[in-house]
């Protein structure tokens, strides 16, 4: 198989940058798992799962901005896309922050998390909406080094600020506060990276079908990222704090596969958006699929051979239950990573009709997981089975819809 050079180059740059970002994310959780009590780390993991659901919009916005930036002919039009998107994004961010605050009133008791902590977590929404706009422009212009630098900066700041605030005595509040400040500073830095666009003479850009395309992207990423996050949230609701904390450790580790292979899809997206030949697009997809599979298999081998060692190194605790389920959760994340890549490829081609049925697949996940009689082992088996059903269901729905 002949590899696409732009995909390889972009993937290597983003893999390196995401490697830093994910390494910092690992260091962050590694530190928090050791500094915080198991119960408090369970709270932090649940809050992060909510953040992951909120970042559905982050990914959707970045996908949309990337596609339209990739199709823009000059920087004047890119500037127009950037300005219009930031104005509308700010209004959306404020509205969603209010909605989240109201939802927190109903959720905090069920999740056994302080209301003030839930509300602080909601402050992340504002930058979760605006940051992907500037990053989407960088990605759409294939400025992978600048995009990677911005994300790596956020990762490093999150670790430094988070640890500093926790040691200052703020506990989970400090851990979340570090995430918020890091996002703010990285967003501010992105404007310096876009100085050429900001200095360009603005030209009106045609963004026909952007709303219908945005809806298609939003629904697809809602399904993927909600599926990605629900397991920890449901575990927090049905298990005692210690058991939920142990599951959170294994789940966070398994999700290294998803986030670790995400740069491959990000490098692929602007390439398959621009390529005219269907044959070239398919080749780029197969290249990306092979990259994801190789990276995932490497992680699965490590999870299978050294689960206890990995859990002990990560958490500083001996957690046999978490070690037992780690390989199974790794398989679950591999399936989800491949499904995510396929959906990104279809979105790079335009609107995808079948995605509007994907949220119904989440019902299957909830039915399989929300059972108070679950043990850790049976819960992990249900999580892996639901991932397989989600992958098969996604492929079937998109294929069937594309024929109609």
Proportion of residues in helical segments: over 70%
Q: Which radius of gyration do the C-alpha atoms yield?
A: 20 Å
Characterize the biggest β-sheet: none
User: Any idea what the shape is?
Assistant: globular
Mean pLDDT: 85
Uncertain segments are: none
Ends distance: 32 Å
Instruction: Give the count of structural domains.
Output: 1
- Our count of helices gives 15
Please provide the ordered H/E string of secondary-structure elements. Answer: HHHHHHHHHHHHHHH
Broad structural category: mainly alpha
Strand residues, percent:
under 5%
Number of beta-strand segments: 0
Task: Lay out the secondary structure.
Blueprint: H1 5-35, H2 38-71, H3 75-111, H4 115-122, H5 124-140, H6 144-193, H7 195-199, H8 210-238, H9 241-254, H10 256-274, H11 278-305, H12 307-315, H13 320-348, H14 359-369, H15 376-403
Can you offer a commentary on this structure?
The protein has 404 residues and is mostly helical. The chain has one domain (5-403). Helices cover 86% and strands 0% of the residues. It is globular, with a radius of gyration of 20 Å. The two termini are 32 Å apart.
Key words describing this protein structure:
globular; 0% strand; mainly alpha; 404 residues
Provide a compact summary of the structure:
The chain has 404 residues and is mainly α. Helices cover 86% and strands 0% of the residues.
């Amino acid at each position: 198989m002949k590899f696409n050079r732009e995909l390889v180059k972009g993937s290597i740059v983003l893999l390196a940058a995401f490697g830093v970002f994910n390494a910092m994310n690992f260091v962050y959780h590694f530190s928090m798992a050791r500094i915080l009590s198991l119960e408090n780390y369970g709270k932090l993991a649940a809050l992060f799962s909510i953040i992951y659901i909120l970042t559905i919009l982050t990914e959707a916005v970045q996908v949309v901005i990337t596609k339209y930036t990739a199709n823009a002919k000059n920087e004047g039009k890119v500037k127009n896309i950037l300005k219009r998107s930031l104005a509308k994004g700010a209004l959306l961010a404020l509205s969603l922050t209010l909605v989240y605050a109201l939802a927190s009133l109903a959720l905090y008791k069920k999740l056994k998390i302080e209301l003030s902590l839930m509300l602080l977590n909601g402050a992340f929404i504002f930058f979760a909406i605006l940051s992907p706009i500037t990053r989407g422009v960088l990605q759409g212009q294939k400025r992978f080094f600048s995009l990677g630098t911005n994300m790596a900066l956020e990762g490093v700041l999150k670790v430094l600020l988070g640890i500093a605030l926790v040691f200052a005595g703020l506990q989970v509040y400090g851990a979340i506060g570090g995430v918020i400040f890091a996002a703010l500073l990285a967003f501010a830095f992105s404007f310096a990276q876009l100085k050429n666009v900001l200095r360009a003479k603005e030209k009106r850009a045609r963004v026909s079908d952007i709303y219908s395309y945005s809806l298609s992207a939003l629904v697809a990423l809602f399904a993927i990222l909600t599926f990605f996050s629900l397991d920890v949230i449901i575990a927090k609701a049905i298990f005692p704090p210690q058991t939920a904390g142990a599951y959170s450790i294994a789940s966070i580790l398994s999700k290294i596969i998803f986030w670790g292979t995400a740069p491959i899809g990000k490098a692929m997206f602007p390439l398959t958006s621009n390529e005219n030949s269907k044959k070239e697009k398919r080749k780029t997809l197969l290249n990306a699929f092979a990259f994801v599979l190789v990276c995932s298999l490497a992680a699965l081998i490590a999870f299978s051979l050294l689960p206890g060692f990995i859990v002990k190194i990560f958490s500083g605790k001996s957690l046999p239950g978490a070690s037992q389920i780690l390989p199974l959760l790794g398989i679950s994340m591999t399936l989800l990573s491949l499904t995510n890549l396929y959906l990104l490829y279809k979105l790079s081609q335009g609107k995808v009709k079948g995605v509007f049925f994907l949220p119904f697949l989440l019902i299957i996940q909830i039915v399989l997981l929300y059972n108070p009689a679950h043990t850790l082992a049976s819960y992990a088996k249900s999580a892996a089975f639901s991932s397989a059903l989600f992958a098969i269901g996604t492929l079937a729905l998109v294929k069937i819809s594309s024929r109609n």
